[in-house]
User: What shape does this take?
Amino acid sequence: PYDLSSIQSIFKMIAYESIPFVIVGSGITLSQLIDQLFFKQVMEGVQHYSAVYTQYIYTLFSANPTKITTVVVSLALAVAETTLPLLAHSLAAHDPDIGKLIFQNINMLLFTLLPIVAVLGGLSYEINGIFFSFSTLGGDYLFWNIIQSLILGLAINGLTLLQALHYSKKAMYYLFVGLIAKLLFQPPLVVLMQGFGAILSTAIGFGFVILLSYGEVRREFHVPFGKLRVTVLVNIVFFAIVIGLAMGIHQLYVPAGLVMAFIFCCVFGLVTLLIYLFMANHTGLSGIIFDRKIG
Assistant: This one.
């Protein structure tokens, strides 16, 4: 016969261990909840803007961009979760090279995430026009939301790493620190910058999460973060090229219709992808990550 008390204890243990995962997994949703609860109060109660204007700004900085930036965050989650079994196995086997595995996780994430953010940022006006409306302000909000999504993606990856390494309670604590920081920065920044202030407060809050989570990983597992310099430098240059190219083209031509904007995005994305592959191959970045050139 089955031991019911043993089964009950197992279920209790599962429920207890799953709480940090549930809370950390809802981190971005909790951040968005703070926007929903406090942005309106600050805009209408402190700034005395109308409900219609407040809803318009909220739609531009949160409701609309979230549909696009979810792609970036989901990619970060996918990269993080692919290494979870390897990390768990290495930790159980007391592998001394677990720091190298964590480094590979972060390097792969940056290699894929940074160029996507750069290209989406360069196409923010067109993407906003395709999915919503051709608006300069809407494009600006989408651009900064895309930059913010990079911070969110890195933070979620850091928290996921901590959970895989059996630091679930610390991951939950670091998330709470980030959310409290966002809560504190939100009112003054919204007063100063409206929707851009809400975006910045989220970036600051999850910036704390990045510093705390990766700092913990570096201390405990001696991850060689210094070796990320090639990936970071290549992508800084790539970001400058993409944004400069987009700004230069927009001085001469700005697509106005859905079809032309879509074609423009396809051509621009293909060209910038080829530029990134060229840079990755000729700087040795592709060799560092894949041990060979791409293409």
In short: Residues 52 and 58 are 10 Å apart (CA to CA). The mean pLDDT is 89. The longest helix spans residues 51-82. The chain has twelve helices and no strands.
